């Protein structure tokens, strides 16, 4: 098997109503392209990375009949983390080939994905959030990218907002300063300091420049680069390596499990950014809106720095 797509859901029916049709379409596109390649004996099967993203707008659409995905090349695995909505019923009715694991008790994100990882049969694992929308050519491009970069253990692509603007999710290794500013002053770039002193203006500019470096805006998002910290919202990985590393560290209930995994991956392989395709991330940023998730974020951050060493600046 070539591809295993790994999802976790907790009351994410609305997200899955948008994601799953685009996901199945992308997997079917990959299979059709590979079949065409084999039958054409050398045709590239439209996998050269130059295909248009197509129409992905993230809008809800009514699903009138089951959408079957039955392939020997790919599989979709979903852990339902004790949803109280109709997530499981919806998926079973409309996407009957999705392999569902139903938790008896709530578990952290890494622990849930580890259940998927243990069952996955694919050569590549796509670990992703349910609040995404995918273009049809996604898997063609990412598989080719990994084949072209055999030293890569993990890769990501451009992650965009609904309006097509970048979310700048490529990051360097975090420091406490970077996380503090980004968490509590997310709109610092938009602050206009017309009446401030030169000292305050210089401090503001220094902080913005530092955040640009943390989000790798200084190197840009238009070329292949090594990325120390790939967002857990979209991780295209080699299954053999992720399983060798025993997946996510389950001590992180939520947040920092992705940067921890990237750090361990980078001890054995490269972590890369592919600029040739983009996905839509309908980002909620829950930890910015909830005191509970802000506390969880802080506690996970402390666990991360305790594990890998505290870096303040």
Helix fraction by DSSP (H/I, runs of at least 4): 25-40%
Query: Shape, please?
Result: globular
List low-pLDDT spans: 38-55
Class from secondary-structure proportions: alpha/beta
CATH C-level class of the largest domain: Alpha Beta
Count of DSSP strands: 9
Report the average pLDDT across residues.
89
Give the end-to-end Cα distance, rounded to a whole number of Å: 44 Å
Order of helices and strands: EHEHEHEEHEHHEEHHEHH
Number of helices: 10
Notes on the protein architecture:
There is one protein chain. The chain is built from 10 helices and 9 strands. It is an alpha/beta fold and 313 residues long. The chain has 2 domains: 3-163 and 221-282, Spore Coat Polysaccharide Biosynthesis Protein SpsA, Chain A (Alpha-Beta Complex), CATH 3.90.550; 172-214 and 287-313, no CATH class. Strands 1, 2, 3, 4, 5, 6, 7, 8 and 9 form a 9-stranded mixed β-sheet that branches. Helix 1 packs parallel to helix 2 (87-94).
